Amino acid sequence: MKYRIVIAGGGTAGITVAARLLRARRDLAGHIAIVEPSDVHYYQPLWTLVGTGLVPRDVTVRPQAPLIPKGATWIRDAVETFLPEENRIVLTSGESIRYDVLIVAVGLKLDWDQVPGTREAIEAGVAGSNYTFDTVLKTWEGIRRLEEGVGLFTFPHTPIKCAGAPQKIMYLADDRLRQRGVRSRVTLRYVAATPSIYSVPKYAATLEKVARERRIETVYRHTLTAVDPIKREATFRNLESGETVAMRFDFLHIVPPMTAPDVVRESPLADAAGWVDVDKHTLQHTRFPNVFALGDVANVPTSKTGAAIRKQAPVLVENVLQFLRGEPLTARYNGYSSCPFVTGIGRLVLAEFGYDGEIMESFPFDQAEERFSMYVLKKDLLPVIYWNGMLKGVL
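User: That's the sequence. What structure does it adopt?
Assistant: Structure tokens below.
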């Protein structure tokens, strides 16, 4: 098979880019292939609210087929090998596809096996995770059962998607415990590998205040290394001293370590850390000019969020079209990302920033303040924008 453009990955980034390309160039219809094995598509940002019973899980998943843009060919398979020197990929079926331009949008890998005991703890019902469709209801079950003891909330030592999600769930858990009148009997503790509560100082100040006022303990520079579901004990490594610390829990929210998918890490496309090596402004590969990447798998130094993809997609599309015309690449991505920090039921801090933490707020008020309007934006408006705008290439 041969296509002008092959898009590896049919998640948020892949579908959005395909839709934008076909809107910009109708003559590309029939010449774009999307390689994606999954027959369902998830809207992951709502899993924070699913994990505390505020939104039903079923609204976060839809069939993949209707989302494939008209004019794109869906190849329901996965990439087995990237061969950029030969301008082709090999699928798990063994079939080979050649391309003029390759766009890599395969997301990242949740590496549960880095931390022994995590799968067993979730299966035993003493832990949950908002990071997969299959485990998010375990979070809600665990919070509902928590009457006393310790609730632990973790953040690993690797880059992760939606870096705010590990703490959003603990603020919502705090509200749920208060609603039931048991908060005074429960210790909530945030144990993170990061050096502070958040990397952007403006929003970190608000989040530190929220944690302090709600009596949430914070422990930094500690990463989860093992879980014993029988003893209900989590082991952490102090990233500064190397010492291990064991903490007992009654409920554990697990954020697994995350890496680039194996197919990327083992390919010529990877940088030293395993991510696709692209120019942070043009999103073009640093060594293979006809390869581009965006979303979680790209090594751009900003947060891995859907909001980042929304700003990366038009830049990448413009640059791909310029590349096909043999023109210099002029579109520039400024590192924009966003994190809607749910700080409680009906409260949200909307963090928006670019490279080097530059503040890039959209509204004419201080977005570091908790607001009900921003909570409504996340819960009710952003999903509509996603399904009906972003994935159709219009927003």
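The chain has a mean pLDDT of 98.
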